[in-house]
Amino acid sequence: MNGSKTALVIGGGIAGIEGAIKIAQAGYPVVIVEKQSRLGGVVAQLYGSFPRWEDPRVLLQHKIEQVEKSDRITVLTGMTVKTAVKEDGFFTVDLQATGGAGEKQVKAGAVVLATGFEMFDASVYGEYGYGIYPNVINSLEFEARLREWNSGRMEPAVPQSIAFIKCVGSRDRSKGLPYCSKICCMYTAKQAGIFKDMFPNAQAYVFYMDYRAAGKEYEEFTRSVIETKHVRYVRGRPSKVLPENGRLIIRAEDTLMGVPVEVETDMVVLAAAIVPSRGTAELARLFGISTDQYGFLESESFNPGKGGERVFFAGACGFAVETQGAQYQGAAAAAQAVALFNQT
Amino acid sequence: MHSDLNHPMRLNNYDRQLQEEIKLTCCADVELCMECGKCTGGCSNAHIFDYTPRKIIQLIKMGAQETLLNMDSLWICVACHLCVDRCPSGINIPRIMDYLREKAYHQGIPNRRDKVRLFHELMLDSIRKTGKVSEAQLIIRYNLATRQYFNNADLAPRMLIKGKLRPFPVKVKKIKEVRRMFTKTPVSKER
User: Fold this and answer.
1) What residues in A contact B62, CB-CB < 8 Å?
2) B12, B13, B15, B19: best mutation site toward chain A, by most A Cβ within 10 Å?
3) Which residues of chain A have a CB within 8 Å of the CB of B12?
4) Whether A257 and B29 lie within 8 Å, measured CB to CB
5) What does the radius of gyration of chain B's CA atoms come to, in whole angstroms?
6) Mean per-residue pLDDT pooled into runs of 10, chain A (344 residues)
7) Residue A143 Cα distances to A250, A299, B104, B127, angstroms
8) What SS3 state is found at B58?
9) Of A156, A121, A108, A189, which is closest to residue A266 (Cα–Cα)?
10) What is the pLDDT of residue A204?
11) How many angstroms from the chain centroid is the CA of residue B15?
């Protein structure tokens, strides 16, 4: 078999998994390459989901079971793409084990890039003290804390007061990221809501410029966090996090009142911007598709999710997207790959 | 600006009690507020308020009771109900204003609008005595008390012609029951 009707999915997060399942269900062989030792990507790190407060691990388990059951899907974990050569309508892709030892070659007639995102390095903001104060963490790190607290481990200590700061990196021209990262408003509401459910007597503050809840049930979700879980939303972008008597003081303006305010907290969670994961730009170059100025993959005109001839993409490597959206995009990329295979 | 709005205010230390009181007595949950400002945009007197309706809701969230009870807006609000009519969350701001006014009144907090207070007292007194607001008598008493004898006098003929002004007070039949009502609530002193 020359591989002209085999699909290669690069990235084993929720978008890649969804794409692979759909291509396999349509009857074509799929290879998933994942650089980590197991499938799941960012979703595997999450504690809760919006807008239905579901457990993302249940979703992931369900999907991974489907992958394992399918005899058309080959999963190659712990491997990355080294080179890719295109000839006669298919790609010959050389893979390399992340550790170094071990190589593999895959021939594929279609490639789905699903390399996901990572969080913007918040230590760029000296004023927030990320990387300096141990209790200033980013949102993904906070998901891990939620898991620890839920499992009964109260180390590190549960904060009596917590503040979430949105738009850390996003909507900041001076840091080179003028775009809105789209999902932070929702996952911050989710995190604050879960925190208040776990510890109803603790205080939770969310600093926001505006909350963007564009999606089915999203507005209701955010309002319920404010109205029924009593998370206090303060409009204003904090300007400084200062240590004081072992706590962290946040200084901001309440822009609705026009007065400077302070909040005493024990933990600060930074909703850092979504940026494409490392290596996405290199893969784009290998497969001959373009990226935008921030490194997100670009679609051809009128073909969302199609980067170039036989190259499709899904999930947050194209732009910040929530779990559900990544699944939609994975399925859409699969549809394009399958349509291509059916034509020839 | 009162001490509870000292800069910078620490949000942690705010008192949630006022917010809870208002939720219970006024059936108004300020957490439903979306900060859209439609109340202020439509308010008939916002241009002379020191704190606009939206900011008043915000002050309640901050627990800034002292500022709320001392603000001028309390006595300029004419309870026209445009704010609650237009509020997308249906927050009953006039009811909140009533509650705060009563609170300020009972605490004897002096306000810079003594005439407003006088007018309220005279109006209630008129109801206490006749069961109705007799406009002519009310205005005459008010003008005498404030020594502005011809204030708004030019409006009287037009109001008379349109039947908006009764020259002589009319008493309701069951005035005793109205009086009894007043004994049950200490809303104002008899003048």
Assistant:
1) 254, 257
2) B12
3) 161, 203, 263-264
4) no
5) 19
6) 85 98 98 96 96 96 97 96 91 90 93 97 96 96 95 86 97 95 97 97 96 96 97 96 95 93 96 96 96 96 95 97 97 97 88
7) 22, 31, 47, 63
8) helix
9) A156
10) 97
11) 24
Which pLDDT score, from 0 to 100, does residue B114 have? 81
Structure tokens at B32: 């439903």
Beta-carbon contacts of A223 under 8 Å, excluding residues fewer than 6 positions away, are B34
Cross-chain residue pair A262–B62, CB shorter than 8 Å? no
* Terminal CA-CA length for chain B: 33
Beta carbons of A204 and A233 less than 8 angstroms apart: no
Pairwise CA distance, residues B34 & B55, whole Å: 12
Place of tokens 């879980």: A229
Taking CB atoms and an 8 Å limit, are B12 and A264 in contact across chains? yes
> Minimal Cα–Cα distance from B33 to chain A, Å?
9
Q: What is the ipTM of this complex?
A: 0.84
Query: How far is Cα A65 from Cα A267, in angstroms, rounded to an integer?
Result: 37
Q: Would the pLDDT of B5 be above 80? A: no
Task: Tell me whether strands A267-272 and A136-138 are parallel, antiparallel or unpaired.
Answer: parallel
What type of residue is A211? Y
Whole-angstrom Cα distance, residue B59 to residue B19?
10
Residue whose structure tokens are 């084990």? A97
CA-nearest of A132, A126, A120, A164 to A145 is: A164
